[in-house]
């Protein structure tokens, strides 16, 4: 959408996209370069923390938060009970599921680094910080969008927990291991 001048007869030099005014000084190359720089810095810090500190500052606490939140939400929305088995493992309670032979089923989802959703959050953070907007606008976008992305990741994890026991594969026990190669 183009804004018009006070006279109303000609569009101004700036186009408006949402709350972000993109004017004649906007350079896409600068935004893309800044995005890639911020993303590279976040990823390098994260990978260094995983290598040097065994993930004890960012990775393990964030994964613990994901499993706690997934357990809480799963017990509210899934038709069976979900339990947290340590800091990185979620599973269904066998007594609440049964296959066609009335044998208890159990599903376990192991959430590893790279599958906990933190790198998607890094993409969002880098994208928001790279855009030419005021700091209050950037902060509002971060506080609005990061919880939304976290919630979508929880839906993905709960989808794994729900899908495996519901779709039979002939096995009474299933294991999903998600990790980066």
What can you tell me about this protein's structure?
This protein is α+β, with helices and mostly antiparallel strands and 181 residues long. It has one domain. The protein is built from 4 helices and 7 strands, in the order βββααβββααβ. It has helices at 28-52, 59-77, 118-130, 135-166; strands at residues 2-4, 11-17, 20-22, 82-84, 89-92, 106-111, 173-178. It has a 4-stranded mixed β-sheet with strand order 4-5-6-7, covered by helices on one side. Strands 1-2-3 form a 3-stranded antiparallel β-sheet, with no helix packed on it. Helix 1 runs antiparallel to helix 3 (118-130), helix 2 (59-77) packs across helix 4 (135-166) and helix 3 packs antiparallel against helix 4 (135-166). The protein starts with a strand and ends with a strand.
Largest sheet report: 4 strands, mixed
Total helices: the number is 4
Encode the helix/strand succession as letters.
EEEHHEEEHHE
Task: Write down the overall geometry.
Answer: elongated
Helix content: 40-55%
Please give the order of strands in the largest beta sheet.
Answer: 4-5-6-7
Instruction: Output the structural class.
Output: alpha+beta
Q: Provide the number of structural domains.
A: 1
Strand content: 15-25%
Structure keywords:
disordered C terminus, alpha+beta, elongated, single chain, four-stranded mixed β-sheet, 4 helices, 18% strand, three-stranded antiparallel β-sheet, 7 strands, 181 residues, disordered N terminus
């Amino acid at each position: 959408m183009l804004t018009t001048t006070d006279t109303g007869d000609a569009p101004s030099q700036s186009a408006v996209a949402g709350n972000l005014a993109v004017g004649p000084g906007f350079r896409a190359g600068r935004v893309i370069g800044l995005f890639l720089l911020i993303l590279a810095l976040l990823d390098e810090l994260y990978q260094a923390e995983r290598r040097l500190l065994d993930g004890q500052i960012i990775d393990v606490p964030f994964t613990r938060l994901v499993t706690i939140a997934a357990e809480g939400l799963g017990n509210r929305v899934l038709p069976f009970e979900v339990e947290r088995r340590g800091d990185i493992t979620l599973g269904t309670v066998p007594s609440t599921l049964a296959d066609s032979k009335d044998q208890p089923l159990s599903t376990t989802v192991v959430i590893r680094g790279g599958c906990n959703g933190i790198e998607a959050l890094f993409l969002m953070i880098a994208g928001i910080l790279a855009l030419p907007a005021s700091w209050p606008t950037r902060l509002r976008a971060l506080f609005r969008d990061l919880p939304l992305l976290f919630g979508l990741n929880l839906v993905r994890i709960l989808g794994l927990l729900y899908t495996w026991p519901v779709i039979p594969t002939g096995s009474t026990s299933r294991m999903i291991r998600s990790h980066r190669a």
